[in-house]
Every structure is written in C-alpha cells, then in structure tokens.
Design a protein that fits this description.
By secondary structure, this protein is α/β, with parallel strands linked by helices. It has two domains: about 160 residues, 3-Layer(aba) Sandwich (Rossmann fold), CATH 3.40.50; about 130 residues, Orthogonal Bundle (N-(1-d-carboxylethyl)-l-norvaline Dehydrogenase, domain 2). The chain contains 15 helices and nine strands. The strands form two sheets. Strands 3-2-1-4-5-6 form a six-stranded parallel sheet, with helices on both faces. The radius of gyration is 20 Å and the shape is elongated.
Length: about 300
C-alpha cells in the first residue's frame, strides 16, 4: 500500500496527472500557488488542500512535483517551508518537472541526508499524454525508490523506464527535448519549402508520414501546423528553457550540440516576437517569416 500521495503543481500537465491518480483510487494532498486550482481539483475526488509544501510533505508517503523549471523546483523542495522541511523519514519525493541534472543530483544528496528518497522523473507526451495517462516517463534514482513509486508512474504513463542513478532522468529528458525541437524545425522547413513550391502542405505530411521521415511530431502537431491554431500543448518559452538545460549539460559533459544551439536561438526569436506562449510547433511561423510565405497561401493560389 503506497499511502497518501502529495502533488505539487497543478498546471497544464500537473492537473491532469493528479486527476488520473485520484481516479485510480489514490488519496491525494494537493498544493498549488494559485490555491483555487487545488481547491477545484479537490472537489473532484478524495483529496485535501495543504497550505504549504512543508505541510503537504508531512502528510504524504510519496510526494510528486510538476513545476515550471529549476528555480521553482529548488524553492519548493529545498526552500523555506519546502518539502524537505516537512518530509517524513522514509518518504519519497518524485520531481516530474523538466529540470537540471545537476540540481537533481544535489537535491538527492540533501534528501538522502534527511533519510528521504528522491527520484527525478520528467515526462514526455505534452498535455495530451497527461490527460490520457500515456506519458513517457524517464526515471533517475535508486532502484528501491523507483519500485515503490512505479504503481503511480503506471497510472500516469504507458512507457516507464528506470534509466539510471540520480540525475539521469533529467539527462534523458534533455535528449528528448533536443530531438523534439530539431524535429519540429525540420518539419517546419519541409512544409514551408513544399508549400511555397506549390504542394498542398497536408499532402506533404501525408507522404512524409509513410516513409523513413515519419515521426510523432507530424502525428501530434499536424492540425496545429495546418490550421495555425497554436493553442499551447508545449509552450515555446518552456521548450526554450528545456534547450537551455540541454546546452548547460553539454558544457558540463563537453558534448557539442551545434544544431541545438541554432534551434535554441530560433525559439528565442519567437519569444522576442511575442510568441513565447504559443505552442512550440509555431516554429513554422518563423520559417514562414523568413520565406515571406504562409502555408495558407497555397490554398489561396490553388
């Protein structure tokens, strides 16, 4: 029996993940800086709302965090009135945010000194995967702690892999975000080239999806790319943050990431243009800007 589960961070990803745990029968304690989000979710099932991370940790056998990035992770876990101030000996903190491998290792060290387990378990699958419980979850940390938390992971995701010791979950997530960003950029280039040359963008995607170029980006982001409805599933500003983490790791491990650096700057251009809150597939609009051509112009000229 796992016991009560704490959940901190109930945004675009965390809210659906917590809801799935509740619907699976787990008793939750919730905390969110915007308290009404926690209160609204608590009404949907067996959950209570805590006044602070410290209070939540004191009532939880396993605590999950889903936060914007490293500064928030450090503050919520190790800061004043944070989780480690209230965590019980033998409990586990599972950080499912996309954060820094170095920070994950440091927090694990601090937690270990307090007899608290720590896992870094970032996810891939965007808001759709969070809602449907089909996330890919990559977990770093001790095997013992992974085995205790695994039943919770199985509710939230359909691909759960213990990738290695503390910090490695975040390393693999950085690798994931590199591939996703560079794939979005490649698809955007192909679409703008094809459309400006007179080919229906939808047919470009149809053909590419049937061969070696097939990828998940074209499947998941197809409608956003074609309709230009960039309501965010994964925001530009958040993906740029993820690439910053990857580039910092590249310096630590002395691994050049030349194309990642270019795409990072492209995301930066979108942020500067006021598109940081758009879905990351809006990278296509930057290529359109440079080409002086919009995908929908194909329909107008057909």
């Amino acid at each position: 029996m796992i016991g009560r589960v704490g959940f901190v961070g109930l945004g675009l990803m965390g809210g659906p993940m917590a809801r799935n745990l509740m619907e699976a029968g787990h008793e939750l304690v919730l905390y969110n800086r915007t308290r009404n989000k926690a209160e609204e979710l608590a009404k949907a099932g067996a959950a209570k709302v805590a006044d602070s991370p410290r209070e939540l940790a004191g009532e939880s056998a396993i605590t999950i965090t889903m936060l914007p990035g490293p500064p928030e992770v450090e503050e919520i876990i190790a800061g004043e009135r944070g989780l480690l101030e209230g965590a019980r000996e033998g409990s586990i903190i599972v950080d499912m945010s996309t954060s820094s491998p170095i920070l994950a290792q440091e927090l694990t060290r601090i937690a270990r000194n307090r007899q608290v387990g720590m896992l870094d378990a970032p996810v891939s699958g965007a808001d759709v995967g969070a809602r449907e419980g089909t996330l890919s979850i990559m977990v770093g940390g001790e095997e013992e702690h992974f085995e205790r938390a695994e039943p919770l992971f199985d509710v939230m995701g359909d691909k759960v892999v213990h990738v290695g010791p503390p910090g490695t979950g975040q390393v693999v997530k950085a690798c994931n975000q590199i591939v996703v960003a560079l794939t979005i950029e490649a698809v955007a280039e192909a679409l703008v080239l094809g459309a400006k040359a007179g080919v229906d963008p939808g047919k470009v995607l149809d053909v590419l999806s049937g061969g070696l170029a097939a990828n998940k980006v074209m499947e998941v982001k197809r409608e956003k790319l074609l309709s230009h409805d960039f309501t965010p599933g994964g925001k530009v500003e958040f993906h740029r943050k993820d690439l910053t983490i990857a580039l910092e790791a590249s310096r630590q491990y002395r691994v050049p990431l030349p194309v990642t650096g270019v795409v990072d700057q492209m995301f930066g251009s979108l942020v500067a243009a006021g598109r940081g809150g758009w879905d990351h597939s809006s990278l296509v609009t930057l290529l359109e800007d440079w080409a002086g051509y919009r995908l929908h112009q194909h329909e107008q000229s057909a």
